[in-house]
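Give me structure tokens for this 339-residue protein.
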Amino acid sequence: MNPRVVLASSGLMMLPSALQGEPSMAYQRTFGPAVDPITRLGWGLGIISLSVIVIIGALLLGGIFRKRSTIPAAELPQPTARDDAGGMAWIYIGTGTTVLILIGCVVWTLLVTAAVAEPAGAREMTVEVTASQWWWSLRYDNQNPGQIFNTANEIHIPVGRPVRFELSSADVIHSFWVPQLAGKMDVIPGQTNVAWMQADKAGVYRGQCAAFCGPQHAHMALLVVAETPEAFAAWREGQVTESVMPATDEAHHGQLIFETHCAPCHTIRGVTPAGIRGPDLTHLMTRRTLAAGLLPNTPENLTGWIASPQFFKPGAHMPDHILSGPELIAVAAYLHTLN
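Here you go.
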């Protein structure tokens, strides 16, 4: 079902931004200690490789366009043993220099790998990340069971503190990558890989699945929101709370429709059973995007996504629901209460 038809019948129109495929927000180009050594290594190896290409290209062009002697070959002086030794010396020098450069690159790479394997400070928090086609499930662990909660697609971390990530996959191989904060880490079914990241400056950083995982691989993004420890504590306190009952009749009607059509896959703590096939929606309206970074989280986009997720993300495991205009408005009104 085309969501334009559904929205038109319900008296709502979709904003053009809903079809752009990217949220309109600026991502800060800053880095953290988990990625700074990798960045320097990448630039260094790139410059070395480019230098080799330039040198070889210059030698090749010099050999091609060098002026040839017009003296007959029979009249040319014959090379002596000393001349041959000089030529071999340049070969030894070139080979030795190349080997030393390669050894240096290997040692540099190993040192960087060791440097980013563990953070310098103690990790105060662990986030379990489960990748699925095509979204990210997040579980914030805590020694206090009452402080454990689930969310999706948007990671909040405190500035200046390293965070541990335990990565697993629910289906195929994915890759967890936040370029401005950390290097890539494969996410493999049946295996838990560990990564960490730290943001030195508050901001919103975009992440992306970096391994082809199916038709909607390009639309499997995530956001990392780095904020002050005080702001993070306030966000976390809000996340551990359960959903409140809707205050209006329309939202209450939408809750009943949600429990019928959506609860088997989605969880809203305090309202529905533990649906695990789709993202936890308990605090949906606190997130910046919908559908794993595909759409900005606006009322129009949310209504369109409910109406026909297959229109925006063909192949997603969320099916189109046949809802009337009033039913669609009621479900959207209920979801808008999930703060």
